[in-house]
Amino acid sequence: MSRTVLEVKDLQFRIGLHTVLNSVSLTLREGSISCLLGPSGCGKTTLLRCIAGFEEVDDGSIILNQKLVSSRDRSIPPEKRKIGVLFQDYALFPHMTVADNIGFGIRHLPKSERQEKIRHLLQSVDLLSYEMRFPHELSGGQQQRVALARALAPEPELLLLDEPFSNLDQSLREKLKHELKVLLETFAVTALIVTHNQDEAFDMADEIGVMAAGRIVQWGSAYDLYHRPKSRVVAEFLGTGAFLPATIDPKGCLESELGELVCAEDMKNLRGNQVTVLLRPDDIVHDDESPSRALVKRVAFRGMYRIYTLALPSGAEIQCFTSSHHEIHSVGTLIGIRLDLKHAVILHREETLVEEMES
Amino acid sequence: MKANKRHFQSKSWLFLSFGIAGLVLTPILVVLGSWLLPVQMPHWQHLMEHLLLSLVWQTGALLVGVCLLTFLIGVTLAWLCSQYRFPGSAWLKRGLILPFAIPAYVSAFVFVGLLDYSGPLRTGARIFFGSDAWIPEIRSLPGGIFILSLALFPYVYVLSFDAFSTQGRSSLEAARSLGSSSFSVFYRLAISFARPWIAGALCLVSLEVLNDFGTVSIVGVNSFTTAIYKVWFGFFSPTTAAQLSSFLVILAFLIFYVEQRSRQGHRYTSSTNLLQRQGIPLRGMQALGASFYALTVFVLAFLLPLAQLLVWVFMDPWAIFSLELAQILFHSLVLGILAASLATLAALIVCLAARYVPRKSLRRSQQIAQLGYGIPGSVMAIGIFLVMVRIDHGLVGILEKLFDYTGPLLLTGTILSMVVALGIRFLAVASSSIDAGLTRISTRLDEVGQLYGTYGWQQFRLIHWPLLKGSIASGFFLVFVDVIKEMPLTLMTRPFGWDSLSVRIYGLTSEGEWQRAALPALCLVLIGMIPLFLFQQKRS
Question: Does B463 touch chain A (CB under 8 A)?
């Protein structure tokens, strides 16, 4: 088991009466890449700033390398934490060259050693010939790499990345996500990324924490979060999906308007309960032969596939993918659908997990 | 936001910033508190009987008149130049800020000289028409309104130009596309969304009117400033002058407050080049009319005064090389450099304090430090004078006890008190430039600094100074030019017999020596043109 680099325990952070972080806990192991994922305003950037030491916490603790750095009455200043930060806007010093920017955090080193290190970093981020350029002469991706090199120069124990791709356009993002991941792995640095974009989180991170309203609501791998969400918030935030009301009958089977969904022995003691079943679009297959019919409400073309938003007779909405080569069904018509549940995520109406089961 | 406060040297920033705010507040409070000093009834009786009524009425009329006229000229020109193309519009829209370079009191004496009994206009009128009675008298209240408006309309012009070409550009285009005529777009839409800008500009105009001393004394209008001067140096009663000033302070602060509020309404949404935009072309008579109107204003406000100054100067070109000019020019430069250094340094301290130590009180202190700009020069002069005299007497008292000192007062009437007064008054000019520069520097950069342990002086030296030096320099320069053009404060606080450009102009014009005043005035205009070029570069 690798070493624990960061441990956050029951962190509280308030601004006035507003609780921004509410009892947040997390643990990062050495060399791991983790991600805080959540909608804007959920507190993820604040958590990052608390870890970096820019904000003082109200309660709880932050322990970096077995050393308490933040608590109710203790706050080690940022420069003593050995943390690197890659800011959202990169925050490169516009008046310094690329080399000076990278050398900023290692000013205390002897000149030759410093230059050696700068050269080495420039080489790693493939910007060797850009040493004497100024930030405004670089592209967005190059600026990001300079910022990364600057953050890595003092060899931090932990690297924090705040929305690292939000300043780049879509096509560039794909390429840079991969590059950044390779670089982080090359330097074997423990990293914590903050983002609101699930693709970024899925692509970059080994472990993801979903944040909502100042809490980490679930921590786990991308697969777990997507297929085994522990709450409706997580299920809704990650990917598209619909929530279908169902009841559990005495045989332990889920009854919905699409018929019997799944049955399980151990659900028998929950009989009579009103529940919600998470249906991902890939759980529903379009089948013209199927007797189950749903009304097409919207169609969206997405290149490789179409997303149909369908209304069931009760008014509940579900979604379904078809190949984009398949004939198009127009809005207002009825199409046949069939359930193809690989596994069911069953949620109480009040949104906590009842059971998660393979079928 | 709760930031890491303890690692800044917050105490010293606090003391420095509060100290500067206190320095600015002192003369203001002294003027307001002057009513606690004995009220000299004979002076007040004289004032009530002979002066007060006329000065309230004339100051009021001047304010209203100048605001109306600058509004009319400024807004219409801004609309024409920002929305349309007509012959000359390309350079007129730049050129119309040039009148900023001509202080109102300079164009005042130029017009008075031009319209003098022996001046070219009246002489010509008598020769060709046999009478000059139809030429209006410029030494009058309407004359004062006319001259001040010509000098001050660029405030309204510049700010509404920006408003018309940024803020509402798309809504104006939307209105056009929906079939509104251009007049109704102007009247119903443009004026209403440009309101915060126009209101702000009119407040600045009003403050300038209240501050004006040179123009009103040349055209013979009784205003608060001239009355304060008369009471102080005529009755030799600084207390009564301060009491009289307190009314002016209250009025000026009301306007200043409105101006500061109106700024909150300014939201620039566009960063594209305002001057390069293509307008709608005007044709035929409309185009001619627009050209004629804009050109007339430009000639009256800039070209004519400048040409007359040049004519006067070339009537005696050798004066350019006189020792006399060299001396007053030197005085002005020294004064400008000292006062601008003081204002810039103080502004830098209050701005940085508010940045480095995130406390509400320091933001407040930064705002208070800017109040000096709202105080008319004459009021600042009397306030500083009263403070300095008090300190001086204390100082001399101590020196008497310790060293048997029997000499004169040490601070009052020295360059020091003049520099302090000017520095306080123009601190806001430097501060707005520095503050704008600071807000352009992302606080993320400060945080990168903190990550690597750069605070305080190091933070300033490594991060802020290199990025801010341009803004500091332009702040310094703007104050420098303002100080050199400033008249009442310099006049009332200068050491005896110490002449600067503006003081010399006052001395010469009060004796009707228009031609001799032309040379120092031309120097002022030339110095005043430099910041306009800087400003123009910034706009484009």
Answer: yes
